Amino acid sequence: xxxxxxxxxxxxxxxxxxxxxxxxxxxxxxxxxxxxxxxxxxxxxxxxxxxxxxxxxxxxxxxxxxxxxxxxxxxxxxxxxxxxxxxxxxxxxxxxxxxxxxxxxxxxxxxxxxxxxxxxxxxxxxxxxxxxxxxxxxxxxxxxxxxxxxxxxxxxxxxxxxxxxxxxxxxxxxxxxxxxxxxxxxxxxxxxxxxxxxxxxxxxxxxxxxxxxxxxxxxxxxxxxxxx
Length: 228
Known about the structure:
The chain is mainly beta. It folds into two domains: 50-158, Sandwich (Immunoglobulin-like); 164-225, CATH 2.40.50.140. The chain contains two helices and 14 strands, in the order H-E-E-E-E-E-E-E-E-E-E-E-E-H-E-E. It has a five-stranded mixed barrel with strand order 10-11-12-14-13. A four-stranded antiparallel sheet has the order 5-4-8-9, with no helix packed on it.
């Protein structure tokens, strides 16, 4: 074999050897990474520290909401309450419009309050709603603490309320405390509460209006208009 052919054979062998070792070492980190067998697959998962629950019942023309939060972390937990309220709620109607928020209707302290909840200990907050009209709602209940919200979202169906939602066309004002509404061709007189009287200037005659009213054997009374 000539010297030239010997050099070509050596060169090809060297290239094949380099290709064989290149598949085991990859400087760009593109090789298969083996997991550490001692590493738990749930190591990066967030474990819930609190378990929230909610119970809703309707009685005596009221909706009662019982909201509980249990510490299931295995150790005591400290919560910081910036408003002094442990829990808050927001209620939305079927269209997604906010109907009310508890923290906007109650007096709360501005001082920071810290509460420590031991393991397996439960805190409870109860709310009584008396002004929801019959219908379907969505409610969000949650803690006000900086560390944990423990939010619960569920539906509410109100069927025994004293309040009813209705709509019609405003015909006109009969006297300072009474208006007439065309409800599907029937003209109905409604008394007005002080709140409704205050809203009346923003309404126009012959326009569609929505309102919440109560009714007894004597009269129908508009409690408030539902303004956009």
